[in-house]
Write a structure and sequence with these properties.
Among the domains are: 5-37 and 203-246 and 311-372, Rossmann fold (3-Layer(aba) Sandwich), CATH 3.40.50; 104-170, no CATH class. By secondary structure, it is α/β, with parallel strands linked by helices. The protein has a seven-stranded mixed β-sheet with strand order 8-7-13-14-15-12-16. The chain has a five-stranded parallel β-sheet with strand order 10-2-1-11-17, with helices on one face. A three-stranded antiparallel β-sheet has the order 5-9-6. The chain has twelve helices and 17 strands. One of its GO terms (molecular function) is flavin adenine dinucleotide binding.
Amino acid sequence: MSGAVLVVGAGFAGAVSARELADAGHAVEVIDRRPHVAGNAFDGPDAHGVLIHHYGPHIFHTNSDRIFAWLSRFTRWRPYEHRVLASVSGRLVPVPINRTTINRLYDLNLDGEGVARHLERVRVPHPDPPDSESLLLSTIGQDLCDRLFRGYSRKQWGIDLRQLDARVAGRIPVRTDDDDRYFTDRHQAMPADGYAALFARILDHPRIRVRLGVEFDPTRDGRGRRHVVYTGPVDAYFGHRFGQLPYRSLRFETEHHPGHALVQPVATINHPNEHAYTRVTEFKHMTGQQCAGTTLVREYPAAEGPPYYPVPTAASAALHRRYQDLVDATPGVSFVGRLAEYRYYNMDQVVAAALRTAARIADRLAGASPAAGQAAASATSE
C-alpha cells in the first residue's frame, strides 16, 4: 500500500491511531510481528476453554468519559472492579493498603482515625522522596514497605526500591477506610466479548489493511509512506545505537483446576516474598465466564524476553533522553505508546496518546495534500 500511512503494531497505540486516521479518510496499513491483533491485551481460550489474557491481566479503568465513549463504539462492557490480596506472613491482606490490611497484619481493631495515627507514627518523613523506597517509607514506614513492597519490587523490576523512580510507588494509594478496590476510576469494566473482539472491531474498516506475522525494518518499510506510526521499542527503531534500554519481560505458567468454579477469593493474589512469581491471576473473576473448571496463571518477571515494562530509573531516563533526541530529529514518524515513548502508561493513557497523535498526523497530512498546497499557493498569489 504505497502512499498509505503505515502503523507498526496492532496493540492499543497502533489500533486506535489506525482507526482515527482511517475515519479521517486516510488509507492505513497495520503490521504486527505477532500472529494476532490486540498486542499484550490479547485474550482467548486456553486448552480447557477458559478465557485468559495471554500476556497478563488487563483491567480497563479510566476517569475519561471521552476515552470510555470512544472505546464503547466497539464493545459492550461488563462492569468489573478489580480487587487484589497479598499473601503476607500466612495471611491474605488487601492491596492497596487499607484499614483491613493494618488491622489484619497487626491484630488491631483501629478505626479510620486510628489507622491514620498508626501510619503517622511509623512513617519516616522525607520532604521530597527521590525514589520509591523513600516515598514508601515516608507514607507507610519500614515494616509495611518491607513486607508488602520490597520483595515484590525486587522480583518485578530486578532492582531494589531505592533504585526505582518515586513515581512507581506513587501509583499505589494508601487508604484509612475499608475500600478494597484496586482502582477508583469512574469507569471500570471489561470488554464483554473480550479484548481480541474489541480490537477486531476497531480495525474493521475499509481503509485499513492488517498484515500479521510481519517484521518491521525502518530502513525499508517506511519508504513511499505518507507517514509512519511506530509503537515498538524506541531503541530498536534506531538499531540500539546508544545501547539497549532496559525493559522487564514476563514468563507465564498456567494451572488448570477441573471441576472448580473458582479457587481464589479474588482475581489476583500478590506474592511479594515467598515465591519466584509475583502474582497469580484467576481470570474468571474478571470475565464472568461460566464454564467447567478454572485456570490460574502465575507471572514470573524476567530480564530477557519480549519487552513489557520500561524500567523507571535515573539511568534509563538518561539513556532514553538520547533516543528522544533522535525521535525529535526524525520527520515523518510518530512514536506512540508504552514502548515507543518509554513510559509506564495505563491502557487509557495509551488510548489518549494515540488519539492526540492521530489528530496531529491528520492535520499535518491535510495541510500537505495537493489540494491544500494549491489553495496555499493561490492565497499567496493573491
